[in-house]
Design a protein that fits this description.
Blueprint lengths: L3 H14 L5 E3 L7 H13 L16 H10 L2 E5 L10 H13 L4 E2 L1 E3 L6 H10 L4 E5 H4 L9 H10 L3 E4 L12 H10 L5 E3 L7 H10 L3 E4 L6 H4 L6 H6 L7 E2 L11 H9 L5 H15 L14
Parallel strand pairs: 1-2, 2-3, 4-5, 5-6, 6-7, 7-8, 8-9
């Protein structure tokens, strides 16, 4: 396993070679410890893939995980958290306010669930500074077209605040995963900003088609193109060849800390597509800076010696 100092140097070297001050990661998980412990226990016992072990690479205390991202030169990241039952989202959002306040690099993240007060606590989260939301259709086991979510989509569409939504049927399908429910949501809310997690795996083409017809639909690279995923759900070469057409719509995501491979491998999975430095700069940094109106500042100092 690569030493942390070596990995940090390797990731920073990638950014430097592209003329970037660092990278922005729109798909990292920070959540209350008791919730994260349950997530890790799920991966340890079964995980989303039947018969395939999914080890957690960065199983560290919260402060150390934050510091590792800083050491890697990650200028901005999210705290992707999500409920699996009613009555949970507002509590998660309260925790996220505190995490964002004590973590300057964090893009203040919030979440929701189909329930009567969802629109109210989404408005409250926006008032408290939320800049991105997280929805997990498979874990939450809900239909994105649920009438209880319609006012939520309306609020977020009006606010122009994006939702990172895990709605593809990979790595494991759910009752409501796939492109069709999202297509119906966008038919009702065509200006809704969405970031399709994991490039929409394995329905890559269908979700790219949605991005082609809706200028507020983006995709993140989370775990896509890595050997771990390519063994099961590879993207077709002709689809990869079309990605330059979406050069302003694709954002880097890692799934840190819940990944079975190194962070530098996630970064190199993007570079190894061979789509050129301009595309790499856009995906690793520029697109997120523009979408979230970030200050493209100098890298954070590293504690790695």
């Amino acid at each position: 396993m690569i030493a942390h100092s070596e990995e940090a140097a390797a990731v920073r070297a990638v950014a430097s070679s592209l003329g970037l001050p660092g990278i922005v990661d729109v798909h990292t998980h920070f959540m209350p410890r008791n919730v994260l412990d349950k997530v890790w226990a799920y991966f340890d016992s079964a995980g989303p893939l039947v018969g395939r072990h999914w080890p957690i690479r960065y199983r560290h205390a919260e402060d150390e995980r934050v510091q590792r991202l800083r050491d890697l030169g990650v200028l901005g990241f999210t705290s992707m958290l999500y409920p699996h039952k009613p009555g949970m989202a507002a509590w998660l959002n309260a925790w996220a306010v505190d995490f964002a306040a004590r973590t300057p690099e964090c893009l203040h993240t919030a979440t929701f669930y189909p329930e009567d007060d969802a629109a109210d606590y989404v408005r409250a989260a926006l008032d408290r500074g939320a800049r991105v939301f997280k929805a997990h259709v498979q874990v939450g086991d809900y239909d994105p077209t649920d009438p209880l979510l319609d006012p939520v989509w309306g609020v977020l569409s009006e606010a122009g605040v994006p939702t990172v939504i895990h709605c593809g049927s990979g790595p494991a399908p759910g009752r409501f995963t796939g492109p069709e429910p999202i297509r119906r949501v966008l038919a009702r809310h065509p200006r809704l900003p969405l970031i399709i997690a994991h490039m929409g795996m394995p329905e890559y083409d269908a979700f790219l088609e949605l991005a082609a017809t809706h200028d507020r639909v983006f995709l993140d690279t989370t775990m896509s193109f890595t050997p771990f995923i390519d063994e099961m759900m590879p993207m077709a070469p002709e689809t990869i060849a079309s990605l330059p057409d979406f050069g302003d719509r694709i954002l880097f995501g890692s799934d840190f800390p819940n990944i079975p491979h190194s962070y530098v491998e996630a970064v190199h999975s993007v570079l190894d597509l061979g789509l050129g430095d301009e595309w790499n700069r856009a995906v690793l940094h520029d697109n997120a800076v523009r979408l979230f109106e970030l200050d493209p500042t100098t890298p954070h100092p590293s504690s790695v010696q």
